[in-house]
Amino acid sequence: MRNFTGTTRILPAAAALGVLLIATLITVPLVMAHHGHGTNTTGTRPNPATDPSPAPTGAVTLVQGSQATDGIELGYPHTIIGAISAAADYLDAVASTLDPDYAASLMRTAGDPANTALPTDLAHSTVLLRGDLQLPTNGPLPAPVSFQTTAQMYQLRNVGTDSVLVLLLTSNTFINARGGSAQTMGVYPVKMHWTGGDWRLAAVGGTGQDYSGLAATPDTSAAVAQGWLALVPATGGAS
After folding, report:
1. Full-model pTM
2. Would you say residue 64 lies in a domain?
3. How far, in Å, are 135, 139, 216 from residue 130 at the CA level?
4. Is residue 228, in this structure, part of any structural domain at all?
5. Residue 3 in domain
């Protein structure tokens, strides 16, 4: 994977949410329902002796959901690997779109029903993303403009039977209207909640902790030294 270089920039909204992007050209705000600040950058590893499943302590092969809908998969197993897989799928989808309506639709499908503000918050986040990329904040965008996020490594915090905080280290690629590209890396805290028979996304950010100290280029020795563990893509797809 390409070794990213450049200046670290954290937008105020992103800093407040514990969402960090280190970019050559851009940073991306993510706006969620719950805001908070904190200083804990390391946290603690889950205890396999007491956590459900038990929690994995190495590379994870992502599992598939049992059904596909609205560009994502649903129906993940009630395991920690199921939660990690759902978190990666949901984040990749909602952090990649530049369509606010689609972002809201994704959260109506995959979001925790208890967080009723999530669809609106994610739609607003997408508008902020477009503005940060110096794109029109409404209306269709010309080809080949796109923003693609891919979760590549993970860490776990606060592991429980029905909830877990999944930290995801991502690579991101922005393609502008002229076909030029810029690459970034991101650290996203994703709260997952088991409810209604499936893993649902409860929030991105808003943890009250700052995980910026964990930033590293994915799939490097520096990332491993920060405690990141590999995600291996699932094969096939839900039917």
Report:
1. 0.81
2. yes
3. 5, 11, 25
4. yes
5. no
β 20-23/60-61 pair status = unpaired
Reading phi first (left if > 0) and then psi (alpha if -120 to 50, else beta), residue 105 is in alpha
- Range of 54's domain? 12-232
CA distance 74 to 65: 5
Q: What is the mean pLDDT of each run of 10 residues along the chain (239 residues)?
A: 28 41 44 31 38 79 95 96 98 95 97 96 93 93 95 96 96 94 93 97 87 93 97 76
Task: Give the integer Cα–Cα distance in Å for 116 and 118.
Answer: 6
Q: Which CATH number fits the domain that encloses residue 114? A: 3.10.450.50
The answer to whether the bond into 144 is cis (omega within 30° of 0) is yes
Torsion of CA 142, 137, 103, 207, to 10 degrees: 130
Burial label, 227 (beta-carbon count in 10 A; 0-12, 13-18, 19+): middle
SS3 160: coil
pLDDT per residue as tens digits for the range 98-143: 999 999 999 999 999 999 999 999 999 999 999 999 999 999 999 9
Tokens of 54: 């038990």
